[in-house]
UniProtKB/TrEMBL annotation, chain A:
Its main location: nucleus. PROSITE patterns: WD_REPEATS_1, WD_REPEATS_2. It comes from the Eukaryota. Keywords: Nucleus, Repeat, WD repeat. It is found in: Nucleus. It holds the Pfam family WD40. WD repeats lie at residues 210-252, 254-296. It comes from Malurus cyaneus samueli. The keyword rRNA processing does not apply. Gene3D superfamilies: YVTN repeat-like/Quinoprotein amine dehydrogenase (2.130.10.10). One of its GO terms (cellular component) is nuclear pore outer ring. This is Nucleoporin 43.
From TrEMBL, chain B:
Keywords: Membrane, mRNA transport, Nuclear pore complex, Nucleus, Protein transport, Translocation, Transport. It comes from the Eukaryota. Belongs to the nucleoporin Nup85 family. Functions as a component of the nuclear pore complex (NPC). This is Nuclear pore complex protein Nup85.
């Protein structure tokens, strides 16, 4: 999987990472959140410095800090709104848009929604409720929080466009867009809900849940091309793949991690690849692409554990590899990308050939040759 | 109470003034895991009741400043990885390979120290705040001293270099930390007969000790001859070099200003007079070197004492001195652990029972727990303290502030992995109570499920039922409708789920099923007695339906339930005897009687054509 350069970020612990979409002929850039002695900071790094390229084009340098800015409260989630602006969800319940000025490499707070999430009464509440998830689709921003509230913001508007109070009686852990007007949320009683933002009713249009114990779900992601395919991960480390067109049960349940799965991401341009990271300190790469035999990835050297799961057939070119239950044909390959796991991997992001992830040992790792 | 740097001697403990404390008041204190709570008392200086009653404040005085210094976090994080690697490493490897492994671990630790020094140095030169700059610079020198000491310990204890390689290592050691040795070496090499000197420098591994000694002797004698012959008489400079090469102490001492420290002097001395020095002989040369070098002008500093203890192979002394001088447990904890793995420390039992290694690791790890993210490292350290680690962990982990749910989840995961059930229950209860207070009933339930806390689940269900009675409808239907198997956690929760199901069936007009369910709730005692009246009232609309729903059997059952409820039973709570209730009861009796009449007729009628 190519060279991993570890930047040990002594001043940072990474809670959420979102690489900027790489622009032509400019270095890859990514954002991180971290804590210093007394405050938290949002930082922008460049990982794409030229030079220091080894014989095989491997990257040996370390990411370079471009700029940073102070942030109030722990960063629970972040997402880029566009090339320059990033939306940050705070444990204080505030949602902030930061703008990255590339000409002079500074960050500034562009807009802030204070107490977007709060408990009981907005006026008397001393601490807000943590905002646990944010998702963007320029210019719309949707946030969810520990208060069970869903907010819809527009980047240029001071007040929330729409707020669904008490959308959920438990904590909402993550949100993502299903379609332009529909969102998906997951909560701490193991439910996946679809909300249609066009409707004024404060009820989900559909509720899915796993059979058995109501294991909390922590993350959700939708297949980039086939919008009915959704992946969720939960407290038991299990990866669930859902087809939301049919039924209320997942299509497949894959035993993955030994502890909470914190994030799941389909690769945005190569969605046969899925990535999950967990409290157990591992980061798994799930490869459901059909030509497994051509990939050299299973010839890695040590420290990698690979497992095989059977799945799709070659004929089903239209149906995604993720949905098939046919055990007879090609297999899915799963690789752990971290050789020496110690503490939790809290967050990951992937774009193009670049993967970044952050751990509880306050380190950020960048892998720039994911499919090499 | 503040930590002293390496420059301060034992007696000069700096006094910390608590800012804001009234000067004439006596202070009382209590130790915490990493800090002291200090409180103003009413008593004046003399101990008499001078102080007037006024507001008393509590101060938190922290000892471990280092935790809060930025770049040291890198030290803590990286060394954690090395520590864990060491604990997990192959114990079965014996002899040379094990030693090589341990030496590598030691080198890894040192490279982390050096990396931090580098970062700290960068921070010092890039900051504009002079106070901060001073702080960073101090840290750089402390780290440098730490690396110096560790390196020496690595040579003497971990690698246990034997005579021959020992001097090479010591040379490297000095060279690494003091750069001026090279100037002398250059001088020598540029003189006549460099080849003869080259021979001397070739103290490679290929030569045995005796070969080395012979070669050295030969070379030494040649040098001596040159001196005696007066070959260098015309050149006093060369002459002094020759004397140095012969190990003439006075000659070397003359060059004192080139050597910054007595251990530099020591190694130089050894290089020219006793290159094949044995480890056990070091102590004598060290002591005399220090005496000669300092010459009675200055007294040895703590760093000097530590190094001397190392040369004397007094490991415990080294650790003790370092503990006193350094303000953080990091160094002694990790060094002692490494030495313990080298099987060099006898179980030196301290008076309260645990051994030295464990004691130091416990202290270090406890300090980590006062930090909002480094505590996770502390957990692993406690895991590797066999005697008291678990107890310490249990105490510390319950006191971590749970600012977000995610942090609580991490703490819970750690507790569950170690079967710390008490702590799991306690933390879940805290989170559930918080959620309940914020009216997040679903969250509260989710925490109860995690802890398998039936009592709390009952509490939550009662809350729901109370809400229902007050409002006439259920809140959080998404939760109650989707309880699944967790419904069985507590009876009350089961009742809640079933009761909601009854309402659903009624809403879907599936009256017979609804009726059956309602009755079961009472007869199977799933419903609490307090709720029976509500249930019976819910039965009214079913009784009033055009079509007969309840069978005769069922109607008799209902009647019995009503009688059980209304008749004063010995031991049960007295029935509410107000107007509303009486009216309700009357209406129920009437409805039941009517239903009974209708159903008897219906059941008695023969369905004919």
């Amino acid at each position: 999987h190519g060279d991993v350069s570890a930047k040990f970020c002594s001043r940072r612990s990474a809670d959420a990472l979102r690489p900027l979409p790489p622009r032509l002929q400019s270095p890859d850039v990514f954002a991180t959140a971290g804590t210093t002695i007394c405050d938290n900071r949002i930082s922008i790094w460049s990982s794409g410095d030229l030079g220091n390229a080894g014989l095989n084009g491997e990257y040996h340098g370390e990411p370079r800090l471009l700029c940073d800015i102070q942030h109030n409260g722990d960063v629970m989630d972040m997402q880029f709104l566009d090339q320059e602006r990033i939306v940050v969800a705070s444990s204080t319940g505030t949602v902030t848009i930061f703008r990255h000025h590339q000409n002079n490499q500074t960050l500034s707070a562009n807009h802030r929604w204070e107490k977007a999430h709060y408990h009981v009464d907005q006026d008397t509440s001393c601490g807000g409720a943590a905002c646990t998830g944010v998702v963007c689709s320029n210019p719309e921003i949707v946030t969810v929080g520990e208060d069970g509230r869903i907010n819809l913001f527009r980047a240029d508007q001071k007040d929330a466009v729409r707020t669904i109070d008490n959308a959920d009686s438990s904590t909402l852990h993550a949100v993502t867009f299903l379609r332009t007007t529909e969102i998906l949320t997951v909560n701490s009683i193991g439910q996946l809900k679809i909300w249609d933002l066009r409707h004024q009713r404060n009820e989900p249009s559909q509720i899915f849940s796993l059979a058995g114990d109501r294991v909390p779900l922590h993350c959700v992601d939708r297949h980039p091309n086939q919008q009915h395919i959704v992946a969720t991960g939960g407290q038991d480390g299990m990866l669930s793949i859902w087809d939301i067109r049919q039924g209320t049960m997942p299509v497949s349940l894959l035993n993955a991690h030994e502890a909470e799965m914190w994030e799941v991401h389909f690769h945005p341009s190569d969605p046969d690849h899925l990535f999950t990271c967990s409290e157990d300190g591992s980061l798994w790469h799930w490869d459901a692409s059909t030509n497994v035999s051509e990939k050299p990835s299973f010839l890695h050297q040590g420290g990698r554990s690979t497992a095989y799961l059977s799945h799709s057939t070659i004929n089903q070119s239209v149906v995604s590899a993720w949905l098939s239950n046919d055990p007879t044909k090609d297999r899915m390959e799963i690789t752990n990308l971290i050789p020496n796991q110690t503490l939790s991997v809290n967050s990951l992001d992937v774009l193009g050939p670049c993967l970044v992830y952050g751990t509880d040992t306050e380190a950020i790792y960048v892998n720039r040759q994911l499919f090499a | 109470m503040g930590g002293a740097g390496p420059g301060a001697a034992d007696e000069h403990r700096p006094v910390t003034v608590v800012p804001g404390a009234v000067p004439r008041r006596q202070l009382c204190f209590a130790w915490g895991p990493a800090e002291v709570l200090v409180c103003e008392t009413l008593f004046g200086r003399a101990g008499t009741g001078e102080g007037a009653p006024s507001t008393s404040r509590v101060f938190v005085v922290r000892r471990d400043q280092d935790i809060y210094i930025q770049t040291l976090r890198k030290l803590f994080n990286e060394s954690h990885g090395i520590f864990m690697g060491l604990q997990r490493s192959e114990e079965e490897l014996a002899g040379k390979s094990r030693k090589a492994q341990l030496v590598q671990v030691s080198k890894n630790y040192r490279s982390v120290i050096r990396a931090c020094m580098e970062d700290m140095h960068q921070a010092a030169i890039s900051t504009r705040d002079p106070a901060l700059q001073g702080q960073y610079s101090t840290q750089v020198s402390i780290l440098s001293a730490m690396e110096l000491i560790w390196n020496l310990c690595e040579i003497l204890f971990v690698e246990a270099a034997a005579a021959g390689p020992l001097l090479l290592r010591l040379l490297d050691w000095v060279r690494l930390h003091v750069c001026d040795v090279d100037s002398m070496v250059r001088e020598v090499l540029s003189s006549e007969n460099p080849s003869k000197h080259k021979l001397f420098w070739n103290l490679g591994n290929t030569q045995t000790l005796t070969e080395l000694e012979l070669k050295w002797q030969h070379w030494h004698e040649e040098c001596q001859r040159y001196l005696q012959d007066g070959t260098f008489a015309s050149n006093p400079h060369m002459e002094s070099i020759c004397k140095i090469l012969l190990g003439d102490e006075d000659a070397i001492l003359e060059k004192k200003e080139l050597m910054t420290t007595w251990y530099h002097f020591l190694v130089t001395r050894l290089l020219y007079s006793h290159p094949t020095v044995k480890p056990m002989e070091l102590r004598f040369y060290a002591q005399s070197s220090m005496d000669l070098f300092l010459g009675g002008e200055s007294s040895p500093e703590p760093l000097d004492m530590i190094l001397m203890a190392a040369f004397e192979f007094e490991m415990h002394q080294v650790i003790k001195e370092c503990s006193i001088v350094l303000s953080n447990w990091w160094f002694v904890a990790h060094l002692t652990d490494l030495l313990d793995h080298c099987k060099l420390l006898q179980s030196h039992n301290l008076y309260f029972g645990s051994n030295m290694r464990e004691f130091l690791l416990l202290e270090y790890a406890s300090g980590l727990f006062s930090h909002h993210s480094l505590w996770q490292l502390g957990v692993d350290y406690f895991d590797h303290c066999p005697q008291y680690g678990r107890v310490y962990l249990e105490l510390h982990i319950e006191r971590i502030p749970l600012s977000t749910e995610q942090k609580a989840l991490k703490v819970l995961r750690i507790c569950e992995q170690r079967q710390m059930h008490e702590q799991v229950r306690s933390i879940c209860k805290i989170m559930a109570m918080k959620a309940l207070r914020n009216n997040r009933l679903g969250s509260a339930l989710s925490w109860s499920i995690r802890a398998k806390d039936a009592a709390f689940a009952t509490l939550i269900s009662d809350r729901f039922l109370k809400d229902y009675c007050e409002r006439g409808c259920f809140s959080d239907l998404d939760l109650i409708d989707n309880l699944g198997p967790s419904m069985l956690l507590s009876d009350r929760l089961t009742f809640l789920g079933k009761y909601r199901e009854f309402h659903r069936l009624y809403g879907e007009k599936r009256f017979p099923e609804a009726a059956r369910l309602l009755l079961t709730l009472m007869t199977a005692h799933i419903a609490p007695c307090s709720f029976w009246m509500t249930l019976l009232t819910d039965a009214l609309p079913l009784l009033e339906q055009k079509e007969v729903i309840f069978s005769a059997e069922q109607t008799y059952e209902l009647m019995r339930c009503l009688e059980d409820l209304t008749s004063p039973n010995p031991g049960s709570a007295p029935f509410q005897d107000d107007d509303v209730e009486t009216t309700k009861v009357e209406m129920l009796r009437l409805a039941l009687a009517r239903n009974l009449a209708r159903v008897i007729v219906k059941e008695g009628t023969v369905e004919g054509s």
